[in-house]
Design brief:
Length: 209
């Protein structure tokens, strides 16, 4: 599969490394520092290239949006038309200082992104923290973490769920994109536990019986 990545921070580059190892082709884009993009692509190898956001959209069967919440407008403007594209967002509506959420419970980052890219097939999932993704194992002892994903397009959700499964996590369909209003604050709780309470690497585990 070809995956265009808009945003080459810790999350975008960490996810890209997993996918490249599994044979997917990547195009990284959207950085003030082109040399940074080139360095990331070189570290991954022949399965990674760089381009503009618009080129990444044209390249990808799936487009990963992995930018700070405050940059979504600029990033999507640079991306151009996303009509018919699977847009996988891992953007949470965090304030720049991570002290709270810019939006929550009445809307979500995912829904705001869908408004800005009305033709896109938006699926949201907030994967493990980048520190966990870059660790030797993504498991907690022997337990696999739970990742929730939302969206309104069943086929697009299935594709994204498959990509998430390659990280060695349990993926759970959390319903429509509207339910991101609850997933995003839950993930913000993990941010507070990991960094505010200094609990280290944390994740969710959904238990069922």
């Amino acid at each position: 599969m070809k995956i265009g990545i808009i945003g080459a921070g810790n999350m975008g580059s960490s996810l890209g490394k997993f996918w490249a190892q599994n044979g997917h082709k990547l195009m990284f884009s959207y950085s003030r520092d082109t040399a940074k993009l080139e360095k990331i692509a070189q570290s991954i190898g022949e399965n990674a290239t760089v381009g503009t956001p618009a080129e990444a959209v044209q390249f990808g069967d799936v487009v990963l949006l992995s930018v700070p919440y405050g940059a979504i407008g600029d990033a999507l403007k640079a991306a151009g038309s996303l009509d018919g594209k699977i847009l996988f967002s891992c953007v949470n509506a965090l304030l720049p200082d991570m002290s709270g959420l810019a939006v929550g419970t009445t809307t979500s980052a995912a829904e705001e992104i869908a408004k800005l890219a009305p033709g896109a097939r938006v699926v949201e999932a907030l994967p493990l923290f980048a520190e966990v993704l870059s660790s030797p194992s993504q498991r907690f002892d022997k337990l696999t973490a739970t990742i929730f994903y939302t969206g309104d397009d069943a086929e697009a959700k299935q594709v994204v769920a498959g990509l998430l499964s390659e990280i060695d996590v349990d993926v759970v369909d959390a319903g429509s994109l509207k339910n991101s209003r609850f997933v995003e604050p839950a993930m913000f709780l993990l941010v507070q536990l990991a960094y505010g309470q200094q609990l280290g690497q944390v994740a969710f585990k959904l238990l069922k019986r």
